[in-house]
Design goal:
The complex is a heterodimer of chains A (477) and B (709). With 477 residues, chain A is an alpha/beta fold. Chain A is built from 16 helices and 18 strands. Chain A starts with a helix and ends in a 12-residue tail after the last strand. Chain B has 6 domains: 89 residues, no CATH class; 85 residues, Sandwich (Immunoglobulin-like), CATH 2.60.40; 104 residues, no CATH class; 42 residues, no CATH class; 142 residues, no CATH class; 69 residues. Chain B is built from 27 helices and 15 strands. In chain B, the strands form 5 sheets. Chain B has a 4-stranded mixed beta sheet with strand order 2-10-9-6. In chain B, strands 1-4-5 form a 3-stranded antiparallel beta sheet, with no helix packed on it. In chain B, strand 9 and strand 10 form a beta hairpin. The chains are: A alpha/beta (477), B alpha+beta (709). Chains A and B meet through helix 2, helix 4, helix 9, helix 10 and helix 11 of A and helix 2, strand 14, helix 21, helix 22 and helix 25 of B.
């Protein structure tokens, strides 16, 4: 059965406002049973039942932390980790593949250090969806939920889903003075702010601890953790003493839950202001110069280094944005959106900017995590919002292509040197094991020990599951 | 089917999910028996139901966990559910039959009245009887599904309610597509209980205190004048009383001064500002769709309507039926803001009727009678709304959500809504059984407005008084405030009816209802608990302190510090409650000011939803950072030209300074202990200005300042 037939069967149902709401007909299970379990006659009940009882409980924690490296703009899959050397010239492009340490897993010649580390990588080559615009697609990538429409300026609102990290902060928060979810150093946008970067209907309490400062700047420090000039910590303590006295007069702390809640946040804020653990975690200047150089003295490189520091301190979810904008017209700034507009050309730009930065940061981060024994329980995710057109356009560049693209996973409970799914001969469509962002979301939550079917409530008190997809069990180590 | 509901098989997280589970999909909570029958009997090669060897049916093996089942074991071999399903399969798995008896209603005991159980009583058995069309009546207590709302109680699968903590709760009882709520309250015994509450001043107190007596609770005492003045000024004018106002009110000895204060506040400009802000939230007055000019004219129209005392039915009718230019006829911005037919339908139901329809878009509402047919019929009323966009001068041509420029709202002669389920035209229909639809020649929105504001419509006046009650009392009689449904009953049904009646009697006068509520003892209760009412947060036994709104906070801080914060795009001097829109579009290249950031952080809504819930009243860590050392407050306190500077130079002595700061921040004089501490602060800080800043910081960071109590 070819892909199209299968998708048609899978999505058969009454077309309507809610997609496959009334789907009947042949399903994945029936396909499976034709050649799989069905032939075994479903015996082994005892053994399997024991397994099933475990499965019904919360999944085991394989990734204590996640570093989500978001490659805004959309990296080309066919010029990085899913090259098509056998395809015609207008598809394969000017770059050549080189062998990696994993047999049969070549990568771009511009990624020789990555080639040596592919045994750590779990590569998903069959990501796909249908959102052609950056904001809708990026929202999908950052939340795992399909946006209501494919809209170049999709507006953020409380009816949209929260970022992964905000969900983690809601259902599995850290119990320490550290924030659960940290993101930096950009608020990404394409004409309007891209939805999916914050907590949405979960409430601002679950927004990321967001850092707008450049971790590569000499004076990098967090405004929240530093006091304005003229306000010493001693003076602040004096103020706090007076505040406590006034609070004791009104007795509000004795009988009001809101007052107590507020005061707990004051306590936490003051602890963070005085805690060396928190400040140290963010204090990138404590890294040896050589380490800082290794990651690269640029915003993204130092962002990756900061991510390692934060994970080391215990932060559960760190999102690092490659760039604030989709970019594509400059070899010195911007994201991966290389259409070749305005006389720019894709290949010179990615050769000078995107591939070298990737080559410098990702292997360094994996090495560093591994050296510190952190890689086993830290999941690293590297992906954009879509791939790029297999066929090179009139500008000698590539356009948006959500129908098939790649995502990289490493560490935290995934198989190394493993490829899940495949694309067809031109990288245009998945040819095997198609994966939607919904499924990737379910996989990430499952690896973190969070049941993907966990429900959260939206502003209308509707119960919504945090991930509607199915976890990809094949790639879990 | 009831068996599968009972076992949880058709829940949203399991096979009732939009895409089923493991390739097996049931209709959500069994709402569609015909669909489920096909799913069960025509499944993959008949494995789900095996009529030859019933015991081999997956329908039995899976939930009994005899074969692997991701959902775990739902029941055991031989259990009642197992046996019911087995006997159904054995008898050939007959399908739903149009001739068989239909479920007419459920009889649930206890009934609709609140059941009050006094400690040590900690359990209550629910009994459910199903009455069928052929007259049979069957005890289905074992088969019904029970869902408690909140965590006050737990319910066993056979309907035994167990108390987890004291308080009031609702349990939903479901059986074969019918639902009934059971209301129950568990209260402490309160040894030697005796009512000691304040005087009943009107029917509101009668209802609130009457229920408290049934719950064997006492209400708090009536609050003192300082608390009353602060509360009333915040609720009506959205601001703090000034130190002069506070001093004057406290020293005024005459009886009736509270009622007079309420009357006075109701005619201030602040009242129109603040209540226009609340309506602006609901009516989605924001710049991206209405543009800056549209936002200004719409806000001015809302504000003037409130200031002029326009009856609320007229207000609603004007919003629903306004046509023409959105610049010259401001209420037309309501339809301009809601650009999509389903959005118009859902939002109108939510704002004017207090009904949430969104669930019924995709499935029959799980907790309510609204079906998909109701949903699309209602939506069809809105399908002929059209916009003439003369010229869209949006800066970003790619942004389809942005509109800059005048538009004309008009109603087309045709334009039917197609039902996405079958592609057929839907006949427009009002919500509710007897309501009907418009005639051929009727303008559908005029027809709709007639019904919305008529007395036959059970929702309009109730939802309005509930919103007013919510704004003054902190929680709706129906809660959430816009979620009216049979399965979410009001806490005080007769009070809701009476208030709605009063609103209709008064000719839909907003101020009338506000006056009634604010002059009650119930509104004027203290937040300090007495006896056991501190343990039971129910029944409006005391006022629950809540954080000030974002705008109230910014204006309050600015007032105490004597500064005018800047809001990007507006002249200095405008107060936060007067901001017409949300600053969704900032003047180019300008960053939001520190006050703009503060407003967002403290929950000023983006006005993307027609829901009170979008204004987030939560507190969180980032707010604490902004209050501790954030840029807006730090600048307000430390800038040289603020009120602290004026005070420092005023020649007031130390005592005078302390006293003035207390009156302006908290509306009361400092206690002796506070004076002593403040004096120590002055001596240790070693300078007037530094000590003033520290004291001012402590006052505005006190819970008494940040909360409305």
């Amino acid at each position: 059965m070819n892909r199209k037939d299968r998708e048609r069967l899978l999505s058969r149902g009454v077309p309507g406002a809610c997609g496959d709401f009334e789907t009947t007909g042949i399903s994945r299970r029936s396909l499976l049973s034709v050649g799989g379990l069905g032939m075994l006659g479903l015996t082994l009940p005892g053994l399997l039942r024991a397994e099933e009882e475990v499965a019904a409980a919360a999944p085991p924690v394989k990734a204590k932390s996640v570093i989500f490296l978001f490659q805004f703009g959309g990296p080309s899959h066919v010029d990085t980790f899913d090259m098509k050397p056998g395809a015609p010239a207008e598809i394969r492009g000017p770059h050549k593949p080189i062998k990696s340490v994993v047999p049969g897993l070549p990568v771009s010649e511009h990624l020789p250090r990555m080639a040596k580390q592919m045994d750590r990588i779990c590569l998903v080559r069959s990501m796909h969806h249908t959102m052609k615009n950056h904001n809708s697609a990026a929202y999908y990538a950052l939340t795992g939920h399909a946006p209501p429409r494919d809209d170049q300026r999709l507006r953020d609102s409380l009816s949209l889903y929260p970022a992964y990290g905000s969900v983690v902060d809601k259902v599995a928060p850290l119990k320490s003075e550290l924030p659960t979810f940290v993101s930096y150093p950009h608020v990404i946008s394409d004409g309007s702010v891209t939805p999916g970067q914050r907590a949405s209907f979960l409430g601002k309490a679950h927004d990321p601890f967001f850092i707008a400062e450049d971790p590569n700047s000499k004076n990098f420090k967090l405004p929240e953790l530093s006091l304005p000039s003229g306000l010493s910590f001693e003076r602040l303590q004096r103020r706090r003493e007076m505040q406590k006295l006034i609070d004791s007069q009104s007795r509000l702390l004795e009988y009001s839950a809101s007052a107590k809640g507020l005061d707990d946040y004051y306590k936490k804020a003051l602890t963070m202001l005085s805690s060396t653990r928190v400040r140290d975690a963010f204090d990138i200047s404590r890294e040896p110069a050589a380490v800082r150089e290794r990651y690269g003295r640029h915003t993204y490189g130092q962002g990756c280094l900061l991510a390692r520091r934060l994970v080391e301190a215990g932060v559960r979810f760190v999102t690092v944005y490659f760039d604030a904008t989709i970019g594509g017209r400059s070899a010195t700034s911007g994201g991966w959106d290389t259409h070749g507009f305005d006389n720019t050309r894709m290949f010179p730009i990615i050769e000078k900017r995107h591939l070298p930065i990737t080559e410098q940061t990702l292997p360094t981060l994996l090495d560093d995590l591994d050296d510190r024994g952190l890689l086993d329980d830290t999941l690293v995710v590297w992906m954009g919002e879509f791939g790029r057109t297999p066929k090179i356009n009139a500008n000698k560049s590539r356009d948006h292509w959500p129908q098939c693209y790649s995502a990289l996973l490493a560490g935290g409970g995934v198989k190394g040197g493993y490829v899940h799914g495949a694309s067809d001969s031109t990288g245009a469509y998945p040819s095997r094991d198609p994966v939607r962002p919904d499924d990737l979301a379910a996989t990430v939550f499952q690896l973190m020990g969070i049941d993907p079917a966990t429900e959260v409530y939206d502003t209308q008190d509707r119960p919504l599951v945090i991930a509607e997809g199915e976890a990809i069990t094949e790639l879990i180590a | 089917m009831a068996v599968l509901s009972k076992a949880g098989c058709n829940q949203g997280t399991c096979h009732g999910n939009r895409s089923g589970k493991g390739g097996f999909k049931l209709s959500l909570r069994g709402q569609d028996p015909a669909f489920d029958y096909v799913a069960l009997t025509r499944g993959p090669r008949g494995r789900r139901v095996d009529r030859v060897i019933p015991e081999k049916s997956l329908l039995l093996l899976k939930p009994a966990a005899e074969v692997p089942h991701e959902g775990g074991r739902r029941f055991r071999v031989g259990d009642v559910p197992f046996e019911i399903l087995r006997s159904w399969i054995r008898s050939g798995a007959p399908g739903p039959d149009s001739r068989s008896a239909k479920l007419e209603r459920l009889e649930v005991s206890p009934g609709k009245e609140l059941e009050v159980l006094v400690d040590p009583a900690a359990e209550l058995q629910i009994r459910v009887h199903a009455v069928f069309s052929d007259g049979t009546r069957r005890d289905v207590s074992e088969l019904a599904v029970y869902e408690p709302v909140g965590d006050i109680v737990e319910v066993s699968s056979s309907g035994l309610i167990r108390r987890s903590s004291f308080g009031e709760s609702t349990v939903l009882v479901r059986y074969l597509g019918r639902q009934e709520p059971v209301r129950v309250a568990f209260v402490p015994a309160g040894k030697g209980y005796e009512w000691r509450g304040p005087l009943e001043k009107n029917f509101i107190d009668k209802a609130i205190f009457g229920k408290l007596r049934r719950l064997r609770l006492n209400s708090a005492e009536v609050c003192d004048d300082t608390v009353f003045l602060r509360r009333a000024t915040l609720d009506l004018a959205g601001r703090l009383p000034t130190s002069d106002e506070a001093r004057a009110f406290i020293s005024a000895e005459k009886p009736g001064k509270r009622a007079r204060k309420i009357d006075a506040l109701l005619v201030t400009a602040g009242f129109a500002d603040f209540w226009a802000l609340k309506w602006g939230d609901l009516l989605r007055n924001e710049e991206k769709v209405l543009d800056r000019k549209g936002v200004q004219v719409f806000q001015r129209w809302i504000r003037e309507s409130i200031a002029a005392g326009k009856p609320l039915d007229v207000f609603a009718r004007e919003l629903l039926t306004a046509r023409g230019s959105t610049y010259r006829n401001p209420p037309a911005n309501y339809l301009r803001a809601n650009r999509d037919v389903l959005q118009r339908a859902e939002n109108t139901a939510q704002v004017f009727l207090g009904v949430r329809l969104a669930c019924a878009k995709c499935h029959n509402h799980p907790f309510e009678r609204w079906t998909q047919d109701d949903y699309y019929g209602w939506a069809a009323l809105f399908s002929r709304v059209r916009y003439k966009v003369f010229e869209n001068k949006r800066r970003d041509g790619l942004d389809k959500n942005a509109f800059v420029g005048e538009q004309v709202v008009w109603i087309a002669r045709d334009g039917e809504l197609k039902d996405p389920r079958d592609g057929k035209s839907v006949a427009p229909l009002l919500l509710g059984a007897a309501a009907g639809g418009p005639g051929e020649k009727d303008d559908p929105l005029e027809f709709l407005a007639d019904w919305v504001t008529s007395r036959e419509n059970p929702f309009f006046s109730r939802s309005l008084v509930n919103r007013i009650w919510f704004n003054l009392m902190g929680k709706g009689l129906v809660d959430p405030v816009d979620d009216f449904r049979a399965t979410n009953p009001p806490s005080h049904p007769e009070l809701l009816e009476r208030l709605a009646g009063e609103l209709e009697e008064s000719g839909f006068e907003l101020r009338k209802v506000i006056r009634l509520i604010m002059n009650s003892s119930a509104y004027q209760l203290s937040s300090v608990p007495v006896d056991s009412n501190g343990k039971v947060e129910t029944g409006f036994a005391r006022v629950l302190p809540r954080r000030l709104d974002a705008e109230q906070l910014v204006d309050g801080l600015a007032q105490v510090m004597g500064v005018s914060p800047s809001f990007n795009g507006y002249p200095r001097g405008i107060r936060a409650v007067q901001l017409p829109g949300t600053n969704a579009i900032l003047p180019r290249y300008k960053k939001p000011s520190s006050a703009d950031v503060f407003l967002k952080l403290f929950g000023k809504p983006d006005r993307m939803l027609t829901c009170e819930c979008e204004r987030m009243s939560q507190t969180h860590l980032a707010q604490a950072f902004h209050l501790v050392s954030g840029p807006m407050l730090h600048d307000m306190i430390s800038r040289g030209d603020n009120r602290l500077g004026v005070l420092a130079d005023s020649g007031l002595g130390e005592m005078g300074l302390i006293s003035e700061l207390y009156w302006s921040a908290l509306g009361r004089p400092p206690s002796e202990a506070e004076v002593a501490s403040a004096r120590r602060l002055f001596s240790s800080a070693g300078g007037g200005r530094v000590a003033l800043e520290d004291l001012a910081w402590a006052l505005v960071n006190s819970k008494e300042f940040l909360l409305r109590r």
